[in-house]
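Practice record 12: protein with HT7.
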Amino acid sequence: PNTVYLKDYKSFGYLVDQVHLTFDLSPNATRVTSRIAFSPNPETEDRSFFLHGEKLRLIRAAIDGTAVSPEITAEGLRVAAPDAPFVWEAEVEIDPANNTALEGLYMSNGMYCTQCEAEGFRKITYYPDRPDVMSTFTVRINGDLPVLLSNGNPVQRGEGWAEWHDPWPKPAYLFALVAGDLVAHSDSFTTISGKSVDLNLWVRPGDEHKCAFGMEALKKSMKWDEDTYGREYDLDVFNIVAVDDFNMGAMENKGLNIFNSSCVLASPDTSTDANFERIEAIIAHEYFHNWTGNRITCRDWFQLCLKEGLTVFRDSQFTSDMRSAPVKRITDVIDLRARQFPEDNGPLSHPVRPESFQEINNFYTATVYEKGAEVIGMLKRLVGDAAYAEALDLYFARHDGQACTIEDWLKVFEDVTGRDLSQFKRWYSQSGTPRLKVEEEFSEGTYTLTLTQHTDPTPGQPDKQPQVIPVAVGLLSPNGDEVVPTRVLEMTEGTQSFTFEGLAAKPVPSILRDFSAPVIVERETDTAERAFLLAHDTDPFHRWEAGRALARETLVEMATGDATPLPDYLDGIRTLLRDKSLDPAYRALMLGLPGQSELAGHLHEAGITPDPAAIWIAVEDLKQALARDLQDMLPDIYAEAQVDAPYAPDAEQSGKRALGAAALDLISRLDGGKQAAAQYEAADNMTLQLSALGCLLGAETGDAQLAAFYDQWKDDRLVIDKWFMLQIMKAKPDRAAAVAKALTEHPDFTWKTPNRFRAVFGALAGNHAGFHDSSGAGYDLLADWLIRLDPLNPQTTARMCTAFQTWKRYDAGRQEMIAAQLDRIAATPDLSRDAGEMISRIRG
Ligand code: HT7
Ligand code: ZN
């Protein structure tokens, strides 16, 4: 397979001055007629004219009105073109109804829709399908459907046709078309300069009642981007469409965002608090792309983090502002450790800006997105808020309408601050998670912290250079007072010492406050110090971190011996839970335990082969111990967590329900599910209904409620996804694969819909002990289904292959079984480039 390299970048020989497209829609034979004005690109002398095109039937092609016969391959066409401005015309036929890969133009429930990022436009017509080729688009859609949408502003519409014009030059990956029988939930927004924008959320008839929350989230996002970044919306309309068949969460097409219906549709009776929060964040994310991604786009796909890291960073800021900043920071770190750390420290490790790929779809990763956002957070911390704001203003002013690189991005910071960011740039080129060893010394009132950084070798990068690491540190005196408030230590060397003078006694350090860098802190410390920080740290993130470290310590001891839970941990949690001055959401996070996969990672790093079954037992035992230990307080906490007001998915109510759910989980271990059954009966929203059902399944007493839940929700596809998922997540380890297998035989297992496939196999992979059950049944089942899905939908198949990425952590028996499955997948005839690349990288 062909590997593409960053170092080989060359600009295209022509500029695209204008694009006109006409679509004659028909399920199996849609005609796409293109008229494209090209002119020579003054930046290069290379006039070779290659247009990308895949799975297209070319009917005719002409240059300046004269028919031409291009040379056609599986990747595109080549033809001699003038060294002067010219008009290219082509007519192609495509088959949207049989497009199961969900890239290009495809159909979902009778509706036409598109997905062009990263390289899907080439499945619609012949075009220089690369992000640095930007142009204005005019689109005419002919089709006998009530709603016909494309990017930009509506120009004209008649019976069976509509015309759209997008005045903002854009790359083809932001093209979109939607046509179908849809209904709109409409509203409007007046921008800061007084322009009125029509807002529509288009859904299938029957889903109208699930639109209000998404629309509010959109308006909040528009306002926030004006207030925070000075970014105003730039078209007369903003359309969002909900689609059931979608490979990812959502797509930021200019003026016409397309969303996986699970990421936009919400109602209190069908969606959980977590769903609402995620929807708000994704709507914000896609909206923010209008400036960071669309107005300023990427020069090539290696620069993906330019738009994704920045937009994730912006959507995190938005959520912090709308909800609780500490809770958002903690949940982001939990997510980073669960998804990005295993990637960065395993066979799929790659830099935030990768240097090569076979299939770009495989690089929409937690590293590019979430580590990319952390890198921006570090930059902001290093230069300060005012310089960050100035740099962003300069970025928008200097690069509006351009396709940019990470060099352009860093240059605005250099120009604003006068700093040299060449060492900082290693965050973009060096893969792997840096480890920070901490040593301390105290003498005569001076406290010295010596930090040493080290990054293990990663694929293709045996040697690492020191990175710039902002380490936020605070110091506490032995009586619990903060003697040195948060200070950012700027580490640039391999080993570096920092001193704090004038201290009366040896302080207790609080290191990496607010998770100021995506690194692993390695420090010899003891249980007592962690308990002290859990009680006294003023930094909410680091206080939580101290509790997390205690939980991890006790679980590691329990999973590797016959230890009992640490009294320091139980006492610390008890004290915190009792503290009603703390936000309920924060207390709920304190009650949470590290994920089982994360624990397996810790054991592996400590040189101990993790036993998934032993980890599962340790977690169950610790929960049982917590339940017994907190027995006297749980009813109070549960009562405190009840909400009297009508349901609202806001931070305050969601926090209470999260605390209630954490308490119910423990209560169910003592009462066999009695309280959960009562909550299930009384529930008037999905958050309470689902958390109760989860507890009942955990207590193995939920069969009746599970059946009732199905009956109640069998016509709601998004709720039925939850029904599939929950059963597998809650299955005992030795039953998980069997439960998943039985569910694949259920008539509602519509496996070609990615949401349903992910509901089953995402849940199986997420049930750590179940997936890694020593029978190997989990591995076998997943491999069977990956092989089955690949010919239809390579992108979703490739993503799901990541379930195997941590395989080298486990014992020889498990490794042998996984290797056999990886080899079986690799040997599948006609395996897609997507899955082929993933499997070969994972196999190593
Ligand atoms: N920019 C988008 C990334 C994307 C995508 C979305 C949906 C389907 C397939 C896709 N391939 C790439 C999503 C985002 O980051 O906003
Ligand atoms: Zn994005």
